[in-house]
Amino acid sequence: MRIKKFVARSLPEAMVQVKAELGPEAVILHTNELKVGGIFGLFGQRMIQVMAAVEAKSPVEKQAPQPPAAVRPAAPAQTPVPAPAPVSIPLSEPAAGAQVAGADVAAVREEMADMRAMMSQIIARMEQPAGAKPLEPQVKELMAVLKKGGVEEEVAAPLLARVRGRITKGSGDWSEAFDLTRALMVKDLGGVQTVSPAGRVVALVGPTGVGKTTTLAKLAAHLALGQGRRVALITADTYRIAAVEQLRTYSDIIGVPLEVVYDPAEVRGALAAHSDKDLILVDTAGRSPKNQAHMSELKTYLDVLEPSETYLVLSLTSGYRDATTIVDHYLPMGFDHFLFTKWDEAAAPGLMYSLVHKYKRPLSYVTTGQNVPDDMEIANPETITRAILGV
Fold this sequence. Notes:
elongated
């Protein structure tokens, strides 16, 4: 028996290939769908694979043609009884004059009926339900929605590959694809972590201009006034003009003490001065990640502080490429959480999902304005996801 696989865009096209290659006596053994091409399993072309077989020609059938009847040798005196010929299943109805035993005809017809039923089921699975869109256009539409919401394409692609892998096969239902995307994003953003009740020293780090000082004041007010914790502030941001005075004003309003340190050698004394406090929040100087000398100095401060938690503060107005450059330079600092600012100024909040997905660090807080202490809240995965998807 000769067996061969055929791949085509449709079942009828595959049948044409089978007949042309193996002839009308070929038997269909198996059919299935497969994807060809695409990226990360996305946008591949749906194809039909058919496995067919045909009986090999017997040695008698392969020998040279017989000479004309006039010169053909006489038949032997005793003609042996031939063995029953094998019955093949043709791809079309047998010819009207086929010499097949009655029982064999019934068996062939029964097998052909089963084959037709199988083909009908395959075609039905290939067809979308009435009124439903094919899945691939929906995936493209979801990609457009995610990109509009600020999610980077290199992050959105594996997310949508997960959606395609879990969606009901062939359903093509937009609401199912959309809801599954939303659920996966909420799960990915889950595990939000805020300042631990057992935390002792909490440091905020990040580049210049992201709003660390204002965020530190909001956090102090939230923990001191909202939770009744005994809080002290330390600032090492002595480079920026009026930064110390800005934080001192906030500390007076909130009613918490402030220590100013000008070099790492003063850190231990500032910590010791407030050993009676539940929590010490530290404002570090904004540093350009490209300035290695400044980054080394920040690392020295953190080594002395030994913070129980370190938050990398980033602005949602940053582009994805710039943000990843910043994060890569701050990774040696050993930060634990992302804290995002300026949601009120950002065109789309998808940067949060992109960075959490890439760096596997949890969210903590987000800020939504300049007002202290009001414009800060604990990150909510559901709210963030809905904002990204525009719902």
